[in-house]
């Protein structure tokens, strides 16, 4: 389906394949002069893993079929011996996820690039959780290799309430009983009939070396070697970006943010989700640093995570569990407590405000920290990490001095590591089974204006109204994504949609779809905490959510399928052509055939005709210059300076904030030029400069007394 800005949902493609385990539309691959796309005229491509493969002879879910949405034919089929669990893709590779294995294929040729066989088995719902960014691939490693381990990693979570302690105690008793059972099992060599998956896995792994849960390895898909990727004591670290412990339990779900620098991981318990910042080193993964910025605390009951989604500006992350609840957390890409200053503006703000930068607050805080050990803690020798984790060493005063002199953060991979922040969800959105079952309990759902539904050609039967706890295994699948609002136009159809209208929303709309085909757009409005006595930059946040529109994306068995080949003006083909055309332009190649829907012949011709200009532009686009590091307090931020202007008559006027010169010019007055620099006969040394208010004070270390400096053209008065 395509959800247009007007709010209408248009069906683009549909096919009945029987049970389908995974399906992805593959993005247009990255091309260059050396690397061309073998399937350019067939794109867009759809990768499908279904129960009956193209050959028909292989076991179910054991092959990936790539179909062309332009012509409808199958262009490639990749066979495997074991079942496929999921497909992931970016502009560089197509990743096929198998049990304890990962296989990666080139996106232009679909030849095998590399494969990983050392994944930790997870009980589900993701049997083998991975995260694929624009370039990096993260997966759960089955053991920790010390020589490749990066600095940092997970801190302990120091947030256990009374409930959690009671639950933990109960679990300890259960674990003790389970361990007794396992010992008996090992002695007899049999498994009880009601054994869980984890126990079966543990039993099958007794003969192998013990596996370590919760370890994450991140590899660079560009630099990693062909063939098997093996993280071991003997292997070199080519292509390994980071290798670190993320949880104590097995990892259940992972996701990169849009920039690929933050990684969110969750474990099988689902109490806490960890947000890591990955700071790489070009030499080896052991030199990289992994900063544990946030622990997102969901609650004390167990839940399996099925989906993680970031907003485009990386200030919001939504984690959905199998209970059908989506938890909305505020975060900053650089860490720190989310507050009014960071999350109430439409744009991302810097880590430090102008006031903090100029006042030198960080220096004072660092001095206190280095003197006392903990973060302003009265007990000397405490670790700087709030959890007191052994992974985070004590602060070194020399490091602190090096890193924070002249507002220079220094090397972020060295100590001190940033402190961990615990964040609770601002909103918990429960997706209803069917749109008719929405009640006041789940939020103020309003139907009428702004709620759409697709007109079905025939009456469809309503979906069975089941509560989440009674559905299959108590599981209720949902997925969430952030995007521009589609309901605005319908609610304000009389008004013209101006550019400023998009600025009224601080957060993009959140779209949540359930396995029953109901898609709901939720509007998120963060605001300062209502119980706060006064609102300042550091005031905590609360959030109001309300559903704005809904679509029922459910097909009935009687509907006709929408299958390719499609017309040239089909939205999928138009989008693919436009992307392909501009990718050729960016690579400096001539786009093949017709230039697509958006024609820009003249831009390409002008670039191609003037080779020198093109080379200059390419060179300049890759230059990044940092000329200097700014001081803590700019000269003009302080109150001790006054700027004086020289008049040709020899009179000197002092301009201060209360000066009448600044206040005299109204909108009708034409300001007179103070000094005409175009006159040839002007000699600054001949001007008689008389300070009006005070004599300049001689500064310490100045070789000349103040009396000798009266010939200088501009006098900066530093009396205060």
Find the count of extended strands (DSSP E, 2+ residues): 31
- CA distance, first residue to last residue: 68 Å
Silhouette: globular
Low-confidence stretches: 158-166, 180-207, 373-408, 437-472, 594-613, 657-667, 673-677
What percent of residues adopt helix (DSSP H or I)?
A: 10-25%
Compute the number of helices. Answer: 11
The major beta sheet can be summarized as: 6 strands, mixed
Average pLDDT, to the nearest integer? 74
Radius of gyration: 32 Å
Structural class: alpha+beta
Strand residues, percent: 15-25%
Region (Disordered): 369-410, 652-675, 690-720
Subcellular location: Cytoplasm, Cytoskeleton; Nucleus; Preautophagosomal structure
Protein name: BCAS3 microtubule associated cell migration factor
Family: Belongs to the BCAS3 family.
